[in-house]
Amino acid sequence: xxxxxxxxxxxxxxxxxxxxARMYQWVNPNxxxxxxxxxxxxxxxxxxGGPRVRVFEQGxxxxxxxxxxxxxxxxDLRDAAFAELKQRQEAEAxxxxxxxARRRALKEKEDKIRSERVAAxxxxxxxxxxxxxxxxxxxxxxxxxxxxxxxLKALIGQFDLQNLGVAKTP
Length: 170
Prior knowledge:
The protein is 62% helix and 11% strand. It has 170 residues and is α+β, with helices and mostly antiparallel strands. The chain has a four-stranded antiparallel sheet with strand order 2-1-3-4, with helices on one face.
């Protein structure tokens, strides 16, 4: 009795997130634990047999391997179960590929934006350097008179006296 209550609770919990999916329930012969899976067990409706499997869909019992069926119907149920499993696996693989493609496209877009930003920064830096060169060239073209030269020599001499302790003569 406890196994049935436990299996019902597990089934209810399993169906909360997967109300559309089929759930396969059986008792593990070794551990005597109830197993629930969205994947049909390998022995489900096979000729070799195995533990009893109950199949639920949207909370309703749709198959029980304890009920004997003609071999053709057993094969049809088995084929349908594994075809559904294959279809779900293919859909999941496709979803993963689409996600990967979106991630790659996003990374490529980010890389392109980053490289464009770096190129723009280089252009700005080159323009700044060019402007500085032009300013230096313009400053070099100004006439420097002798008074200015003498003032600069005096400043350099004072600097040398204060910092080096040696006076350099102009």
